[in-house]
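Late entry, evening session. Most of the bench is empty. Finally got around to the prediction I had been postponing all week. Sequence below, unchanged from the version circulated by S.P.
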Amino acid sequence: GFWDFTWDEMAKYDIPAMIEMVLEQTGASDLQYAGHSMGTTAFMAMHHYRQDIAEKIRLAHFLSPVAYVGHMESPIGWIAGLGDLLNSLLHLFGIGEFLPSNLL
């Protein structure tokens, strides 16, 4: 049936075909990729299967990536754990407010 496909097949066939078509139609040598949810997963898998296509991507933008970051070792993982504290501090100082009424 029509919906009988997997993200793995999208990574092997669909995304490379779309990227090649865009490059062919525009005459560009590379492009930026924007993927949402399953589009991010399929792109990351495509990167594994098709290094030749991956080299033609200048920058990939992942919106709502389907990912697990429990084993992240970068400082961003540590900072993300402080999200509520940082948000409270920024709110206290009026960071992000439009026309704050006072200095603090």
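Two things to note before I forget:
The chain has a mean pLDDT of 86.
The two ends are 61 Å apart (CA to CA).
Will write this up properly tomorrow.
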